[in-house]
Amino acid sequence: MTAVSTVKCVVWDIDNTLLTGIYLESGDEPPGADPVLAAALAELGARGILHALASKNPPEAAAHTARVTGWRFAAAECGWGNKSDALTRIAATLGIAVDALAFVDDDPYERAEVGSALPGVLVLSPEEAAEAVGWPEFSPPVITAEARRRGEMYAERQRRQEAERAFGGTREEFLESAGTQVTIAAATAADVPRLAELAARTRQFNSAAGRVPATEDGAAGPPGEGMTQDWFQGLLSAPDCDVVTVRLRDAFGDDGMVGGCVITRDAGTWTVPLLMMSCRTMGRGVIDALLAWLTRQATQAGASRLRIPCVPDGRNVPLRLALAAAGFRVPGPPPAVYQRDLGTSRPALPGWVTAPGEPGGGTA
Amino acid sequence: MIPAGPGPDAPGPGTPGTGTPGGADPAPITDDLRAFLASATGRDELLHIPPTAALFGAPVGLDSLTGTLLLREIQRRFGVDVAGEDLNLDSLATLGALAAFVAARAGPGSGR
Asked: Is the ipTM above a cut-off of 0.90?
C-alpha cells in the first residue's frame, strides 16, 4: 500500500452533524453543538487541519455553528446547490487540492453525491468522523508552529485578498504597500521539522513531486516518504550542499517558514534537487524571489550552469510557470531538468527580500 | 463572455502566429485571452496589447497565480491542456504565440 495522504481540511455539514438538530426547524432556540464532534474539531485543529462548513442553510446557521462549537471556520458555503460544488469552491478559496479534503455529513444522499462527483475526497458519516481522529489520514507526521497557526493564517489571507482587490495598483505595488518581507537564510537544526512538513505537504510548488531526489543528478527517486527529518538533518552536514529556508510576513500576518530548497555545488554547476514552497504564498512573489536569488548567487559564485530537475506531474503547473517566468528552460528530453543561462544579466531582487550574499542581507 | 472589441492593434487576417495548421481562427481567441488577462489582473490596459506582447515580464507580468488561472480558463473554454502539451511553456512567450497554439488545437467554432 502506498503512503496515505494527509487531509488538509475537513468540510462539515451542520444539521444533525455538528449540531444536535436541524437549525431551521428549531424555532427560537437553535440546537447546540455535538460534544463528540466539537472535541474532534479542536483535536484536529491542533494538528493543523483546517475546518470548513458546507450546509443547505442560510449563512446565519454558519455563524451559529461557529458560536456553539467555539471554532473559527476557514471557509463556509451556505446555499442550496450541490455539496460537491461547495467543496470545489472551498478548495479553491483555501488554495488546496480537492483531494486534500474530507467531507462529513449525516445524510447518505449528500455523501453519495460528493463521493461520486469528487472521488478523491474522503467521505465520512459523523460516527466515522468521531473515530477518524485516530486514522493516519488525520495524523500529520510532524506538527509545527506553522501548522498550529494555519487556521489564523487563512483568516489573514482573506483580509489580504480583500485589501488587494480594493488596491488600485499592480501586484508588485500591493506587495510593497503591504509591508511584504521575505527572508532567505541557511537552515539550522531547528528548521528540520518544518522542512520535512513542507516536503510532505507541498505539491503545486514542489520540484520533486513528493519523491526523494537521488543525490547525483537530482533525478527523482521512487515515490515514498523519504524526505524525512533524518534526510534533511543529514543534508545539513553534507559537504558542498546547502539547505535554505524562506520565511514570509507582512502587515496582515506572519506566515513563518513557507518554503525552502536544497542546493548542491559541483565544479561550476549548481543543482537544486529540491525546491518547495507553500501554495498559500501563490501571488505573493515569494517563489519568484527565491528563483531570482538562486540565479544571482550562482552567477556571483562563478557557476556556469544552474539546474533544477523537476517532475512535471500535472499538479505542479504553478512551479513550472514560475520557472518559465524566471527564464528557466528544459533543453533536452525527459527527465525534465530546467536550466538557466547564467551568462546574461542577473535578475533583479525586490527590496523587500533579505538574503545571504545580498546588500542588507545581514540586517533584519 | 466579456466583449473585448478589437483594439487598434488587433491582428488582421493573416497575422503571422506560430503557424495554425487547421483548427480555429486565432483572432477571436486573442481577444478572449486579452479579456481574461484584463479581468484576472484588474488592468484594463491589457485589453489593447498587441499579439507581440510578452506574457512573462512587462507588460503583462504573468506569474504563477495568474498563469495558473489563465491555463485553467483555456482548458475550460477551448479544451486545450497547454501545460500538458508544452513542457517548456514556450507557447506563453507572447499573446500571439499562445493564441496560435490554442487555435491549432481547438476545434473550429470552439469557445462558443
From this structure: no
